[in-house]
Amino acid sequence: MGEFYGKRIRISIITIDQVPAYWLAKTQKWLEEN
């Protein structure tokens, strides 16, 4: 799910503020790595 939200952030569908708190850490890690 981190990758899912990360890709959506990259293409500007959502912002980091809209990521559910449960997935926030995994999403931030994915964005840093990719």
Polypeptide structure, described:
The chain contains 2 helices and no strands. The model has no long low-confidence stretch (mean pLDDT 93). 65% of the residues lie in helices and 0% in strands. By secondary structure, the chain is mainly α. The chain has one domain. Helix 1 packs across helix 2. It is globular. The two termini are 14 Å apart.
Which geometry do the CA atoms define? globular
Q: Count the helices. How many?
A: 2
User: Helix/strand/pairing class, anyone?
Assistant: mainly alpha
Question: What is the β-strand count?
Answer: 0
Mean pLDDT score? 93
H/E topology pattern: HH
Question: How much β-strand is present in the residues?
Answer: under 5%
* Major beta-sheet overview: none
Q: Which segments are poorly predicted (pLDDT under 50) over 5 or more consecutive residues?
A: none
> Which percent bin holds the helix content?
55-70%
How many structural domains can be distinguished in the coordinates?
Answer: 1
Radius of gyration: 8 Å
